[in-house]
Specification:
heterodimer; A: alpha/beta; seven-stranded mixed sheet
């Protein structure tokens, strides 16, 4: 929500689109041009917003040259803070749908229609996740990471009482309600798993749909090495279980806005 | 408790208290953080001066020698302070995240407004092209 003193963005820039593609990118100069280009080609109804998460290379410039809008974070916030900047942007500009696509090229913008189709099929689904495991696909994650994914998948499936196969996937489509929720409160370091649970606590729903993913096109994963994977697992497990004990106001299903989301500071 | 040890403990606690007060006076330490420091140095000072209390405390928690109880209390306060600072840091972390996000969003908004003014001034192509391309051109 904007204060009234804000200058209206002139019509010239209201592109008329109500879909926003958010691409969090940290030092992804090897792939960002292709990712933005692929989004423009394969998902032309989307405005493209690249979040340059304090990159030290030319990621921001390349993204801009490729025709994307770029949010330049003044320092590295990590994936959670970067994606949340995208939610805030989408929320303020009134986008109705937001898709999140990694800047490393592992997500195929050609699969976005599938996410949309799934949102149509499951009316009332607030978030659609592209899953690598919901069916057999070419993607093979490193074993250390796969273990973590399956542990989370198991836990979340129990907690949500619905099958969740790939809770770490960052290839997601959100509707207005999910955007509004995450603009106000989004988890920190490794947010995807917690975000699924948050959504559930706020009585919003998520569905998965199988998608094809590529191996990373370049750059360095934020989760390299089994040490980091282990840290990731422990950290997210802590967040999950402590999060279960947090008190929340519970909105009724179908309520217009997720009211329990904590407001900023 | 040995008199020498008592003198050292009292000097230390008084020194800490004075240092904290001086830092607050110079505005180098916020009162919010100073309070916990002052409270801990006062408690340590009280225990160092008032031997009976220290002995009672030591007996209650099963510590054989009273001076160890003094150290125990001191360590407990240090842990409490560290936790307090971790919490303060977490809050700062959160606040700086929000600031960074706002700043980036405002910067983008400013660029768009500036571009729009450039357009109004008839200076079309120069600034505009990356922004507009993302929306219009690719859709056609």
């Amino acid at each position: 929500m904007l204060p009234e003193t804000f200058i209206e963005i002139p019509r010239t820039f209201a592109t008329g689109n109500d879909c926003l593609a958010v691409v969090p990118a940290y030092n992804e100069e090897a792939t960002i041009t292709d990712v933005v280009g692929a989004l423009h080609r394969r998902a032309p109804q989307f405005d493209v917003l690249v979040i340059d998460d304090g990159s030290t290379d030319a990621t921001g410039e390349l993204a801009e040259a490729a025709g994307a809008r770029v949010l330049r974070l003044p320092f590295n916030l990590g994936i959670g803070g970067a994606v949340q900047a995208g939610f805030k942007f989408a929320d303020e500009r009134g986008y109705r749908y937001m898709v999140q696509v990694d800047g490393d090229g592992q997500h195929d913008p050609g699969e976005i229609p599938r996410l949309f189709a799934a949102m149509d099929d499951h009316e009332g689904a607030d978030m659609i996740c592209g899953s690598r495991f919901a069916s057999t696909t070419g993607y093979i994650a490193p074993i250390s990471r796969r273990t973590g994914i399956h542990v989370f998948a198991f836990l979340l499936s129990r907690l949500l009482r619905q099958p969740v196969t790939d809770p770490t996937s960052g290839f997601r489509l959100y509707n207005r309600r999910a955007i509004a929720l995450f603009a106000r409160d989004y988890p920190h370091d490794y947010p995807e798993v917690e975000a699924v649970l948050m959504l559930h606590h706020h009585r919003l729903t998520m569905r998965e749909v199988p998608v094809r993913m590529f191996q990373r096109g370049g750059g360095v994963s934020s989760l390299r090495g089994s040490g980091k994977s282990f840290y990731y697992m422990v950290k997210v497990l802590l967040a999950l279980f402590v999060g279960l004990g947090r008190r929340r106001a519970v909105p009724e299903p179908g309520e217009a806005a997720p009211v329990a989301a904590e407001h900023g500071l | 408790m040995d008199l020498r040890l008592q003198i050292v403990a009292i000097t230390g606690a008084v020194g800490l208290l004075l240092l904290v007060l001086e830092l607050v006076r110079r505005r180098a330490l916020l009162e919010r953080y100073a309070l916990l420091w002052m409270f801990s140095s006062v408690v340590i000072l009280a225990l160092a001066v008032w031997q009976d209390a220290l002995n009672v405390l030591a007996r209650q928690i099963g510590i054989l020698s009273a001076p160890n109880a003094l150290f125990f209390v001191a360590v407990a306060f240090i842990l409490l302070l560290l936790l307090h600072f971790s919490a303060a840091m977490s809050r700062l972390n959160d606040q700086s995240k929000v600031l960074a996000q706002r700043q980036a969003i405002l910067e983008q908004r400013l660029r768009e407004v500036e571009c729009a003014r450039a357009v109004a001034a008839g200076d079309e192509q120069r600034h505009l092209e990356p922004l507009l391309r993302s929306g219009a051109e690719h859709r056609n």
